[in-house]
């Protein structure tokens, strides 16, 4: 029923077309392997994957792509963009979402039969995530509740090993303006085609509570793969290689590669 309502809405109120920014790394990759499409979290763009996770993925032979979210779009528009980009790729794609991007991927999976999916530090439970943000960073979070900018801090995003200058440079680049639906959204639809789904995160994440990680993983039939000591921003934290290598190892087993 939810899928039918979404399709009816697409006909009566179509998503506004935009020019999409996609960063790709495909040279010297294996065209027989499924491409990976990375979807960033709140305040991030394709740049968040371009430094580490895209080249690490391409080095393992997988064509790698990252999508920058459209400015000001709602959840339906962001999921629509993921579906459109994934459908344009030459092979059935693996969707990888980080943070709020994992929620977008979860919605996109209701429309696109992904080869597999990875939800990294997924912000799927809006109210627990809001509570965690208020506890960890009340002064940075309160303006966002009233439509302002969400100012995340170092302790929310990174482990203690990331150099201060590097953390500051990333934080200065973020422009996070969450929409109310990040908290009030309906549950994500059932994935089309029942793809394998891996949930990864950190027990030390100050954005996504551990119980939320467990609930998300249980919903998709597994347990979360954990990386202690890391913050929420897995693709940019100092130990960024550990989660992406584990993700690619898991994917290789799922594909029999």
From TrEMBL:
It comes from the Bacteria. Coiled coil: none annotated. This is Alpha/beta fold hydrolase. The keyword Aminoacyl-tRNA synthetase does not apply. The keyword Acetylation does not apply. GO terms for molecular function: hydrolase activity. It holds the Pfam family Abhydrolase_6. Residues 36-237 form the AB hydrolase-1 domain. Keywords: Hydrolase.
């Amino acid at each position: 029923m939810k899928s039918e309502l979404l399709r009816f809405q697409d006909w009566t109120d179509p998503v506004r077309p935009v020019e999409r920014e996609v960063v790709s790394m495909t040279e010297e990759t294996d065209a027989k392997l499924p491409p990976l499409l990375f979807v960033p979290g709140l305040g991030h763009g394709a740049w968040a994957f371009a430094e580490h996770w895209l080249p690490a993925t391409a080095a393992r032979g997988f064509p790698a792509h990252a999508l920058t979210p459209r400015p000001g779009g709602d959840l339906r528009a962001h999921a629509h963009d993921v579906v459109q980009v994934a459908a344009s790729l030459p092979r059935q794609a693996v969707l990888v979402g980080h943070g709020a991007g994992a929620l977008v991927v979860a919605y996109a999976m209701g429309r696109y039969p992904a080869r597999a999916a990875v939800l990294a530090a997924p912000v799927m439970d809006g109210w627990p995530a809001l509570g965690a943000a208020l506890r960890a960073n009340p002064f940075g979070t309160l303006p966002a509740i009233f439509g302002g900018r969400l100012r995340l801090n170092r302790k929310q995003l990174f482990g203690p090993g990331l150099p201060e200058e590097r953390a500051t440079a990333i934080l200065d680049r973020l422009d996070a303006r969450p929409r109310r639906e990040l908290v009030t959204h309906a549950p994500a639809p059932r994935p089309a085609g029942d793809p394998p789904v891996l949930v990864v995160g950190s027990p030390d994440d100050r954005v996504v509570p551990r119980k939320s990680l467990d609930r998300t993983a249980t919903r998709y039939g597994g347990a979360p793969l954990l990386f202690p000591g890391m913050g929420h921003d897995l693709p940019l934290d100092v130990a960024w290689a550990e989660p992406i290598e584990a993700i690619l190892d898991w994917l290789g087993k799922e594909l029999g590669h």
